[in-house]
């Protein structure tokens, strides 16, 4: 039996190679969130003049969104890739090797987490080039990369769970808009305390995506906000644990081998 | 080469699917070490389901199977360590190159680091893909994909090889090349080969023994020669010169044997003692003129027809048979 790290490394390398060789799925998670951020920054800049708005730079405020948006793209890509493996029989090929079930999942997720961190580096560099100053400094940036890895793990495991349950890339893509709804009913464009419409503020307040965004936002514009960090990391860890548990269960169901 | 048991022993193997018929309905078979066993049947007959059970990817509903001396139900990892498999449709990643695939497979199969690269090169050369090794698989032809599939199945030097319809969709040249490699593996490396196919010629040319499966049951088993000898008698096929004579020729032929085909063909399986000369003499005496008369030795399709009442081609077209995976 080959060592688990070798198996995971081989599968992660494959996952990254695949993504690198299909620009059509590698570029949108980088470009679209940044483009949307720039559009919002142009159109919603006046929001910064609202009393109580946490910063004078809407760009700094909006920079948090791509981190979560990119992770959502990763969910879809991870799920679609795994579903394709199931449909084409590649998953069966892997099942015929001595590879452990845990390595099948971990290898896939290791690739997604690596790509998630690379995406985060891209967003950070883009922000710095556009003049955003990170209030938490270099240590905050390091923590942000760790957080990006955690969020990518959570959403990637969720995508893997969906793929293992449905075995269909089309189903994953069909679920993608539903995941995006969570993003749009969050505090992505306005701080929760400044949302004037009651029902929207309520939905944004019970939506965990709001806290995932606010954790990133705190590191960029506030500095070290213990409450925002605790909520963000807490939700990311909970999402990862629940998604991983679901993915492991679904893998057991899918992997019928004796 | 390994000296361990590389036989396949199957007893009363069953696989049922929810809301479906028994895809495999209590089959027994034995494949000797180094033998090429052809598993022949139409689509949906239960061939692929059998392979999935024997390769541990699908647990049997009932019965037992030992592959390489290991129980497929309780010793899955041990079974997988001694088998290689190329399942239906080459399961390859179109974005990876041939070399990428072999690199991944050598790592997952726990080939020692120092041996990985030489093994990759050896297999690429063996299947004739050295030049194409660094091209993405999406640019490969069907034959190249099948050859790569075979190379991947051989990475860990398995003593038993499962090939599920390995030449479906291949051109004759690629098919012949693959047959040659499979035959070489059995003859030179003593690899046991379990080969499913719906091509009669493939089973005839390649297999030491053939099992014919229909509706999840094995309906005939033996060497191709013995199975054909079991049918025994040759058939005679006539092409009339004038369509008007069709009825008369059919009547004449019926005197010499049982009609074959769907009634449109002018063919009979000759009765004991009847020969081609008798038929020609009878037609001559009745003033029947024909374009062609052909005497055919029994084929595996004749065996299939005799055992199931249908031709293999007809069974495949009707989609008759148990649920396929």
Describe the secondary structure blueprint for this structure.
The complex is a heterodimer of chains A (about 260) and B (about 325).
Chain A lengths: L3 H17 L2 H4 L1 H16 L14 H5 L1 H25 L1 H6 L5 H29 L7 H30 L2 H16 L13 H9 L1 H15 L3 H29 L4
Chain B lengths: L7 E9 L5 E10 L4 E5 L6 H8 L7 E6 L2 E2 L4 H7 E4 L11 H11 L4 H14 L15 H12 L6 E5 L7 H18 L2 E6 L2 H7 L2 E6 L2 E6 L1 H8 L3 E6 L5 H9 L2 E3 L7 E4 L5 H10 L4 E7 L3 H9 L3 H7 L7
Parallel strand pairs in B: 3-8, 3-9, 6-7, 7-8
Antiparallel strand pairs in B: 1-2, 1-4, 4-5, 9-10, 11-13, 11-14, 12-13
Structural overview:
The complex is a heterodimer of chains A (258) and B (325). Chain A is mainly alpha-helical. Chain A has helices spanning 4-20, 23-26, 28-43, 58-62, 64-88, 90-95, 101-129, 137-166, 169-184, 198-206, 208-222, 226-254. Chain A has one domain (4-41, 54-254). In chain A, helix 5 runs parallel beside helix 8. Chain A starts with a helix and ends with a helix. The mean pLDDT of chain A is 89. Chain B folds into two domains: 8-92 and 140-228, Rossmann fold (3-Layer(aba) Sandwich); 233-297, 2-Layer Sandwich (Alpha-Beta Plaits). Chain B is 37% helix and 24% strand. The longest helix of chain B has 18 residues, at 172-189. Classes of the chains: A mainly alpha (258), B alpha/beta (325). At the A-B interface, helix 1 and helix 6 of A face helix 2 and helix 3 of B.
């Amino acid at each position: 039996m080959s060592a688990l790290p070798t198996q995971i490394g081989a599968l992660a390398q494959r996952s990254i190679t695949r993504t690198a060789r299909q620009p059509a799925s590698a570029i949108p998670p980088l470009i679209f969130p940044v483009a949307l951020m720039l559009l919002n920054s142009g159109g919603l800049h006046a929001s910064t003049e609202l009393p109580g708005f946490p910063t004078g730079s809407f760009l700094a405020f909006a920079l948090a969104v791509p981190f979560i948006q990119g992770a959502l793209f990763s969910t879809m890509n991870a799920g679609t890739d795994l579903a394709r493996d199931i449909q084409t029989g590649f998953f069966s090929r892997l099942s015929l090797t001595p590879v452990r079930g845990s390595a099948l999942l971990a290898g896939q997720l290791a690739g997604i987490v690596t790509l998630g961190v690379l995406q985060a580096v891209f967003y950070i560099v883009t922000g710095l080039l556009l003049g955003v100053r990170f209030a938490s400094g270099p240590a905050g940036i390091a923590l942000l990369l760790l957080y990006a890895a955690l969020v990518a793990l959570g959403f990637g495991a969720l995508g893997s769970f969906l793929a293992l349950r449905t075995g269909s890339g089309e189903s994953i893509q069909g679920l993608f808009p539903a995941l995006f709804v969570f993003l749009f009913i969050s505090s992505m464009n306005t701080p929760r305390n400044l949302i004037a419409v009651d029902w929207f503020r309520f939905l944004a307040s019970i939506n965990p995506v709001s806290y995932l965004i606010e954790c990133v936002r705190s590191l960029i514009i506030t500095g070290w906000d213990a409450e925002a960090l605790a909520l963000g990391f807490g939700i990311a860890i909970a999402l990862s644990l629940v998604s991983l548990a679901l993915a492991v269960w679904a893998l057991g169901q899918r992997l019928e081998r004796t | 080469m390994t000296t361990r048991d590389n036989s396949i022993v199957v007893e009363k193997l069953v696989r049922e699917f929810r809301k479906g018929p028994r895809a495999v309905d209590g089959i027994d078979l034995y494949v000797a070490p180094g033998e090429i066993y052809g598993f022949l049947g139409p689509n949906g007959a239960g061939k692929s389901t059998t392979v999935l059970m024997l390769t541990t990817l699908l647990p049997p509903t009932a019965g037992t199977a030992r592959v390489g001396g290991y129980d497929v139900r309780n010793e899955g990892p041990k079974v997988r360590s001694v088998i290689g498999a190329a399942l239906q449709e080459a399961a390859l990643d179109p974005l990876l190159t041939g070399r990428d695939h072999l690199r991944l497979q050598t790592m997952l199969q726990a080939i020692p680091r120092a041996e990985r690269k030489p093994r990759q090169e050896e297999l690429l050369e063996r299947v004739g893909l050295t030049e194409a090794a660094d091209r993405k698989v999406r640019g490969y032809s069907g034959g190249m994909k099948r050859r790569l599939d075979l190379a991947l199945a051989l990475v860990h030097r398995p003593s038993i090889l499962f090939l599920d319809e390995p030449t479906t969709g291949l051109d004759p040249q690629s098919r012949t090349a693959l047959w040659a490699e499979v035959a070489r593996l059995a003859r030179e490396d003593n690899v046991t080969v379990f080969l499913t196919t719906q091509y009669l010629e493939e089973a005839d040319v390649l297999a030491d023994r053939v099992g014919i499966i229909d509706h999840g049951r094995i309906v005939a088993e033996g060497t191709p020669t013995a199975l054909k000898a079991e049918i025994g008698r040759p058939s005679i096929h006539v092409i009339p010169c004038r369509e008007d004579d069709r009825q008369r020729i059919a009547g004449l032929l019926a005197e010499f044997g049982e009609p074959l085909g769907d009634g449109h063909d002018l063919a009979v399986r000759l009765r004991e003692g009847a020969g081609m000369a008798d038929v020609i003499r009878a037609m001559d005496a009745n003033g029947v003129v024909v374009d062609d008369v052909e005497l055919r030795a029994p084929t595996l399709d004749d065996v299939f027809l005799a055992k199931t009442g249908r031709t293999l081609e007809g069974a495949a077209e009707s989609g008759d048979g148990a649920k396929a995976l």
